[in-house]
Design brief:
heterodimer; A: 676 residues; alpha+beta; five-stranded parallel beta sheet; five-stranded mixed beta sheet; 26 strands; rod-shaped; B: 164 residues; alpha/beta
């Protein structure tokens, strides 16, 4: 292929055959025989090929050099060409797939590399590149402008400003003049730079190219002519974008202050056109062109101010984020706390529910055998009495022991002592025998004589107290009868306890009187007074104070509520002792939802509930006192809570030493019924 | 002549009756006293001491109204009138680990019987404890040979006779 005169040639130095062929093909398609494309595969061939290209008076405006050739770096080839005066004007463009400019830094700072063409390239990208690199040479070689006008136009680059002339010659005065456009100042600065340095080469890079890497030594600056560059910094938290729109036209600012190590990474976001300048080049330009100092200062001031503003905004943002974060953290920890509480409550409820099921099962299983025991003990008692005959002393001993009212051990001991003394007075001194007689139900001399006495005289059959030996001998069957009676009574008492427990459990599990219908017009003050009357015997010595304010009657289960008041009163006596002072109060109130309600408080002056127990006091527990099952603290309160909750109300307790207040709030209308 | 006394401390009457009934085979030589709480038990302890009788054994439930059975046994262990003689046994279904450890360490608990108890075991424990008490109190062993640990009591009797 013969190129028109003067021949214009483009050199491709590419080691990979396939890439080389494609690049040559794309270039030829683009140039359409207006230039000749020559290609070599190695660094060694590059210089000779370049010489041949210009040897016959031809032009070599562009060399595309693979960055990593099999036998050397593209940067070194570019430098080699650059140092040859015949080839210095040739634009050297490195072909690379690497975004970083790191290892071509030296070539760049020598002005030996004018651009980077990213692989894979697009035809459009290639076209722009070629155009952009032909354009600076077109002024010198009109033939280029003639022949490649279309390409040059496409790559016109930043338009030459018309308003540059508007900047006065006395540039020092523009420094602080806000009426002069920043863009105009920048353009003027570039123009002045170009004039001072003989239009230093432009570098065109693709998006993603890293112009300066954080931490690298920076030997100069980049003047950004076109495109967007992002500044970012990396730390353990990842990469932080600091500036993008606020980057400004000068990269590597810090290198001007003597810091050589780059603080930020400068990365192209779009296609970017820059002028790389070494510090030396800059110094040379400043010396040659006095106006440049003022222009550069203004540009630097503007960009620094922009970056500072951005930094301030970032700081404000950081503060706001910190505040938001703190608020969020507080909310989170509050949420976590309430979650933990809810979980604990759930676990607790689940445990209670399981226990409840278990208790229901146990209650059911216990009920039958206990009922059978109760019946059997009565049958046993009837049959034993039949066997013993209606009037025998043994039968009397059996009945007496079976039906004997409970007596404290101390009273029994005192009685036994009295009997021993009586016997001693009558000449029978034997304490153990006295004890046996007492246990057999023979508790005074008269009864003993009548039951075990020796008959004297034939007509008037008078009996008299026998001797100790005779008493001991005759006592046997009667003792046995009394023991049998005691045993039967034991069975009956034990059975009653089991049945009472079962009944209590069932009442609890049913939730009080679940079957009882709700009725209107339940007067709570009336209910309290009824409960006081019912518990009359236990409240005999207690002081009851009433503070009843007029309150509406409610819809409820009078019987079940009766049970609540009875439980609370019994609890007060249990806690405060017989002489407790109980204050009963009734007053109108509202539920937390705002519905009309009635508040009932039962306050006692007992010792109070031990700390930590108050929240557990409504849990079902059994207590036994003196062999009696009591539902005072425990089942009674848990039943009460069930009843209150069945009414849609609440029950709570507050307790300090000397003052315990149970508060029941019952809605006037049951919430579930309110809508009807 | 001083009597040997066993004290049953139990607040539930039917349980107390049953314990007393199970101890009846010993009643020919041992007086059985009962109390329904710790306070009443202490009254019995005082009466026994005043009468010059020997409190050989206390069988106490742990759970009592007011002070517990372990409290009672601990106090008793510190009572100089009964140190070295009175044997202490818990008969309970309700003492937890800590209560029991305290009873062993502080009251010198001799035995622990769980409810429901076995009558034979109850009597065996009571016989052994009362035999110890008889020997420690220096009572004449002979009246107890039939109801308590006969061979041990007889051996003690012979040794004492030969000592004289």
């Amino acid at each position: 292929m013969t190129a028109p005169h003067p021949p214009v040639r483009i050199l491709v130095v590419e080691g990979d055959g396939e890439v080389r062929r494609r690049l040559v093909a794309d270039l030829e398609a683009l140039l359409d025989e207006r230039a000749e494309v020559r290609a070599v595969a190695t660094a060694a061939e590059a210089l000779a090929a370049a010489h041949r290209a210009v040897g016959d008076g031809g032009l070599l405006p562009l060399a595309l050099i693979e960055r990593t050739l099999p036998d050397g770096s593209g940067g070194a080839v570019a430098t080699q060409l650059h140092e040859d005066p015949a080839l210095a004007p040739t634009r050297k463009v490195l072909l690379t797939s690497e975004p970083s400019l790191k290892d071509v830094g030296s070539a760049l700072s020598h002005g030996a590399v004018h651009g980077m063409l990213h692989r894979p390239w697009t035809r459009t990208g290639l076209r722009e590149h070629v155009g952009a690199h032909l354009r600076p040479l077109a002024a010198q070689h009109p033939v280029l402008a003639e022949r490649f006008g279309d390409l040059l136009e496409a790559a016109a680059g930043p338009p030459r400003p018309a308003d540059v002339e508007a900047v006065p010659d006395d540039v020092a005065s523009v420094l602080l003049d806000p009426t002069i456009d920043d863009a105009a100042i920048e353009r003027l600065m570039v123009e002045v730079l170009d004039a001072a340095l003989g239009e230093p080469p432009r570098l065109r890079v693709a998006p993603g190219a890293v112009l300066i890497e954080e931490g690298d030594d920076v030997g100069g600056i980049y003047v950004v002519l076109d495109g967007e560059v992002a500044l970012s910094r990396h730390d353990e938290g990842g990469r932080h974008l600091l500036h993008s729109a606020s980057t400004g036209p000068i990269l590597g600012l810090l290198s001007l202050t003597g810091h050589k190590r780059a603080f930020l990474r400068c990365e192209a976001v779009t296609d970017v056109l820059v002028i790389p300048l070494t510090v030396e080049q800059l110094s040379r330009a400043l010396a040659a062109e006095p106006r440049l100092g003022a222009l550069l200062t203004r540009v630097l001031l503007t960009s620094l101010a922009r970056r500072l503003r951005r930094a301030d905004e970032l700081q404000v943002e950081v503060d706001r984020l910190n505040r938001d974060l703190a608020a969020e953290r507080d909310e989170l920890s509050a949420a976590l706390r309430s979650l933990a509480e809810a979980e604990a409550q759930l676990v607790h409820q689940a445990r209670l529910a399981t226990l409840g099921e278990l208790a229901a099962g146990v209650a059911h299983e216990l009920n039958n055998p206990a009922a059978a025991l109760q019946r059997a003990s009565e049958h046993l008692a009837e049959d034993v009495r039949t066997i013993l005959g209606p009037t025998s002393p043994v039968a009397r001993a059996f009945d007496a022991a079976r039906t004997e009212p409970p007596m404290s051990t101390a009273d029994a001991r005192a009685g036994r002592q009295r009997l021993a003394d009586e016997l001693a007075a009558a000449g029978v001194e034997d304490r153990r025998l006295a004890g046996r007689l007492w246990a057999a139900g023979l508790r005074d001399l008269e009864t003993i004589t009548a039951t075990l006495g020796t008959v004297r005289g034939r007509v008037r059959r008078r009996r008299q107290l026998p001797s100790a030996a005779e008493l001991a001998e005759r006592l046997g069957p009667i003792e046995a009868g009394a023991r049998a009676g005691t045993a039967v009574r034991g069975i009956q008492l034990a059975t009653e306890r089991v049945l009472a427990l079962v009944g209590g459990l069932r009442a609890y599990l049913r939730g009080g009187e679940a079957d009882e219908p709700f009725v209107d017009g339940v007067d709570l003050a009336q209910g309290l007074d009824d409960a006081v009357r019912l518990l009359g015997h236990r409240l005999r010595r207690a002081t009851i104070e009433r503070r009843y304010a007029p309150a509406p009657a409610i819809t409820g289960q009078p019987g079940a509520l009766q049970q609540v008041w009875t439980n609370l009163l019994a609890n007060a006596v249990e806690a405060g002792g017989d002489e407790v002072t109980i204050e009963l109060a009734v007053a109108p109130a509202t539920t937390p939802e705002g519905a009309p309600a009635v508040r009932v408080t039962v306050t006692d002056d007992g010792p109070g509930i031990p700390e930590g127990l108050a929240e557990r006091i409504f849990e079902p527990r059994f207590t036994t006192k003196h062999g009696q099952v009591t539902f005072g603290v425990g089942l009674g309160l848990s039943i009460s809570r069930r009843i209150v909750e069945a009414h849609g109300g609440t029950i709570s307790v507050e307790s300090t030493a000397g003052r315990t207040v149970f508060t029941v709030v019952l809605p006037v209308t049951h919430p579930a019924e309110a809508g009807r | 002549m001083s009597e040997l006394v066993v004290l049953v401390v139990e607040d539930e009457p039917e349980v107390r009756d049953a314990l007393v009934r199970d101890l009846q085979p010993l009643a020919a030589s041992v007086r059985i006293e009962v109390a329904d709480d710790a306070e009443d038990a202490e009254a019995v302890v005082r009466e026994v001491a005043e009468a010059g009788d020997v409190l050989g054994l206390v069988l106490a439930d742990h759970r009592l109204p007011g002070r517990t059975g372990v409290d009672l046994l601990v106090d008793l262990a510190e009572d100089p009138d009964h140190v070295g003689v009175t044997r202490k046994v818990l008969v309970t279904g309700q003492a937890d680990h800590a209560d029991t450890i305290r009873a062993v360490n502080e009251a010198g608990l001799d035995h622990y019987i769980a409810k429901p108890w076995d009558a034979e075991e109850l009597r065996a424990v009571a016989r052994a404890a009362l035999t110890d008490a008889v020997l420690d109190a220096g009572l004449d062993p002979l009246p107890f040979v039939a109801d308590l640990d006969g061979p041990r009591l007889l051996e003690a009797y012979r040794r004492r006779a030969s000592d004289r």
